[in-house]
Design brief:
The structure is a single chain. With 279 residues, this protein is α+β, with helices and mostly antiparallel strands. The chain contains ten helices and eight strands. Strands 1, 2, 3, 4, 5, 6, 7 and 8 form an eight-stranded antiparallel beta sheet that branches. Keywords: Membrane, Transmembrane, Transmembrane helix.
Length: 279
């Protein structure tokens, strides 16, 4: 096996996998912003945990927002603030000798709402984006139907014919450390509204070869025509593999089980089925 990645079929087919004897699935270009939000969450949470653990004032303020020293536990700062509200200070409109701990906390939450919003964003918002952002469905190339199609928002998007027009998006990516690992963007026709197009980003992130998304779509042109060589066919895996950062608590979006039948039916209805051309 060649040690040059550019000549190694295992790298040349990265981002694709067999989905059937006549069909190949391509990865949807996904993961960059998920990595960004995940990294940002780790950094922000780490910084604030460090502040809370090393700064007594930050510690007391943070846990005080959660009721420590008033509703539960010991917190000198919040205990003194509550006592001041009961006796001499006018921190909130409810302050007075009869103010209850619950009324005090409700008044403080109303007055300092943006403190709660900030901490919820750091400790819940950013991690939730990473944990619940699920992987998009792949794009399928079907040699028997001479078509490429996918699924979005409950509808089929499809392109008929072996000629796949696409644009390779090149920009510097600090994570990929390259300006030639952007997605290849193709347009597929909305099956319910043929005048409408949907843009789909193709390719693995981060690919081990530069311009891999464009290379994949170039391979699919030959695949749809039946010209693909045995080296690529044999090297292509039986299922798509995904890096750990694409994991989500929600299941990934998948192509419907009957999408091939739906695509064939649409092609026949519009006179684009390969049998129509042969006839």
């Amino acid at each position: 096996m060649s040690t040059n990645r550019d000549d190694d079929p295992r790298y040349l087919v990265e981002g694709s996998a067999w989905s059937g004897p006549d069909s190949v699935d391509l990865k949807y270009y996904f993961g960059k912003m998920k990595i960004v939000f995940g990294s940002l969450a780790i950094i922000m949470i780490g910084v604030w945990i460090w502040f809370i653990m090393t700064s007594p004032l930050t510690h007391d303020r943070f846990w005080g927002l959660l009721g420590e020293g008033v509703l539960w536990g010991e917190n000198e700062l919040m205990s003194n603030t509550y006592k001041g509200c009961q006796t001499w200070a006018d921190f909130f409109p409810v302050c007075g000798p009869d103010v209850t701990p619950q009324e005090f906390m409700l008044a403080m939450a109303t007055e300092r709402i943006w403190h709660y919003v900030f901490y919820m964003g750091v400790f819940l918002g950013l991690p939730s984006i990473f944990l619940f952002w699920r992987r998009p469905a792949p794009i399928r190339c079907n040699k028997a139907l001479k078509a490429i199609y996918s699924w979005r928002r409950g509808r089929l998007f499809i392109h008929s014919g072996h000629y796949i027009e696409f644009k390779q998006k090149n920009f510097y990516d600090a994570i990929a450390q390259s300006s030639r690992r952007g997605p290849a963007v193709i347009e597929l026709t909305d099956s319910r509204n043929p005048a409408r197009k949907g843009k789909f980003k193709v390719g693995p992130y981060v690919s081990r070869l530069e311009s891999q998304p464009a290379r994949l779509l170039g391979q699919m042109r030959n695949f749809l025509l039946g010209y693909e060589g045995p080296a690529l066919s044999e090297a292509r895996p039986r299922r798509l593999s995904y890096p750990f950062w694409e994991w989500s608590l929600l299941p990934p979006r998948r192509l419907p089980a009957d999408i091939d039948a739906q695509a064939e039916r649409w092609l026949r209805e519009h006179g684009l089925h390969p049998d129509d051309a042969d006839g």
